[in-house]
Amino acid sequence: MTDKKIPYLLALTPILFLIVLLFVNFEIYDDVLDGANQLALLLSGSLAAIIGVYYGSKWDHIMEGIGESIKSIVPAIIMLLLIGSLAGTWLISGVIPTMIYYGLQIINPKIFLFATAIITAIVSIATGSSWSTIATIGIALLGIGTAIGLPLGLIGGAIISGAYFGDKMSPLSDTTNMAAAISGVDLFDHIKYMMYTTIPSFIISLILFLCIGFYFTSDISSMQIDEALDIIADKFTITLWLLLVPTAVIFMVIKKISAIPALFFGTLLGGIFAILFQPDIVIEVSGSQLTSISSYYKGVINSMIGDVNFTNINASINDVFNIAGKNRSDLLKSGGMYGMLSTILLMFCAMIFSGSVESTGLLSRITEPIVKYAQNTGSLIATTACTCIFFNITTSDQYMSIVVPGRMFADTYKEKGLAPENLSRTLEDSGTVTSVLIPWNSCGATQSAVLGVGVLAYLPFCFFNLISPLMTIAYGYFGIKIKEIHSA
Predict the structure, then answer these.
(1) Under a CB-based contact definition with an 8 Å cutoff, are residues 444 and 397 in contact?
(2) Concatenated DSSP letters for 296-318?
(3) Is 159 a residue whose pLDDT tops 60?
(4) Which are the contacts of 60, defined by CB distance < 8 A and separation ≥ 6?
(5) How would residue 250 be classed by pLDDT, with cut points 50, 70 and 90?
(6) Cβ proximity of 124 and 164 under 8 Å
(7) Which of 236, 404, 435, 453 could pair with 97 in a Cys bridge, judged by C-beta atoms 3.0 to 4.6 Å apart?
(8) pTM beyond 0.70
(9) Which H or E run includes 456?
């Protein structure tokens, strides 16, 4: 922390500087993940460090803060690498093609978005993890929606809306447990109280997806779908046995096995099933002409590490659906671990910025006067919600957006006679769900990389994530389901 009090506007400078750079990058670069935004975060973090040192912060303390910040995302980085490798083995094993194959036959295009949100919500409630849900079922649903002809951003919004609803309502979710613990609320009381805002938000989201689905006119005929199915079946062995792989991963997470070992097991299982069911494809990916143990090994490893793109099949499917130009999609493609590196770099740079701003005391200086503006119940809940979003933007971490505001406002809620359930609900309604809407937040960067859809592309269609904070603020101002201390 600094020895002297930093002027408020000066404390805001690194954040304002970051916003300007991000806007400039968005206007100039086609793909800001190539390095422009990473550099913007580093420059803004450097500015924060310079201000901090000038006002008395020790350099060693700043570096220690940055180190702690980076340390907090190590599990997320491991998960990202595993998700990349899992996508590769699930592609060459035929798991993803099989899910797409059967999904195209089952799901009606008119209700696809509605069904997608429901499916991801159910899986996420069962597993307690939006990340695992998006990385498994979400990828398959994205492929199905792409084949139907829906915009990628719209499909991504439906996937994320359902996954984050399930994540919030699951007693297995880490953020749900964290919000309850930091507020001093029983876990199931917290979930019960969240239902008042979360369920209406999700119902509105489902209605919107249903309306869009019926409004959407697909030019794709059943004959085109049959042609696409034939193309997939000609390349891959399609069998229900392959669905044992995602089923096993989901079962492990339901049984409270950590997501990291579950994803690792799913990756290995995908590799084994690839050798058993798609031996020719494994040999093809290996680049070898010989059928041998070493070729099988090389093929599986190649799928885990680097790009796998069945270019000819993707081109044929695009031609069947008359998809041309920039709209052409790579339905059967995986980037492997290498495909996650730009996202990991973004997360590293975001944590450097976060650690610098926090360790220099700039962040606490910025939030210091915020509590003073909360005069009544409505403004208190609105201020809490806005603070959670602010921390998602500045710290790039959803856990910080729950923990820090939870500590900041706990006493204020008690002083105003409000039960802690109000605080825990607001933390989730505004902290958990908005993290995925920030491009440089660990959640936004991860889900964008996993789905291959830019944050700004899916953001307008993440109806649940956008509605939730507005719903909790509305409840606060209108006095709906605001529990007071000692009330029944």
Answers:
(1) no
(2) HHHHHHHHHHS-EE-HHHHHHHH
(3) yes
(4) none
(5) confident
(6) yes
(7) 236
(8) yes
(9) helix 455-458
Using left for φ > 0, alpha for ψ between -120 and 50, and beta otherwise, residue 330 falls in beta
The encoded tokens of residue 8 equal 């408020």
**Residue 382 and residue 45: Cα distance in Å, rounded?**
28
Per-residue buried b or exposed e for 69-90, using 16+ beta carbons within 10 Å of the residue's own CB: bbebbeebbebbbbbbbbbbbb
Q: Which two tokens stand for residue 395?
A: 């710290």
Could you tell me how far CA 269 lies from the centroid of its own chain?
Answer: 24
Residue type present at position 343:
T
Alpha-carbon distance values, 101 to 71, 106, 141, 269, 312 (Å): 41, 9, 11, 20, 17
Do 421 and 113 contact (CB within 8 A), yes or no? no
Let me know how long the chain is: 488
As given in the structure block, the two tokens for residue 158 are 């439906």
Contacts of 7 (CB under 8 A, 6+ apart): none
Radius of gyration of the chain measured on its C-alpha atoms? 23
In contact, 235 and 281? CB cutoff 8 Å: yes
- Residue 55 is classified by DSSP as T
What are the structural domain ranges in the chain? Answer: 8-72+339-478, 75-336
Q: How far is CA 415 from CA 234, 387, 409, 411, 412, in A?
A: 68, 19, 10, 6, 5
Written as six digits, the tokens of 87 are 């996508």
pLDDT for 375 beyond 80:
no
Q: For residue 333, what are the β-bridge partners? A: 309
Beta bridge mates, 418: 484
The whole-angstrom separation of Cα 414 and Cα 426 is 15
Q: In which band, very low, low, confident or very high, does the pLDDT at 385 lie, cut at 50, 70 and 90?
A: very high
Cβ contact 168:432 at 8 Å: yes
Tell me the CA distances in angstroms from 229 to 234, 242, 252, 421, one per residue in order. Answer: 9, 17, 31, 50
Place of tokens 């889900």: 447
CA distances from 55 to 7, 133, 337 (A): 10, 45, 42
Question: Any bridge partners for residue 309, and if so which?
Answer: 333
Average pLDDT, the chain: 85
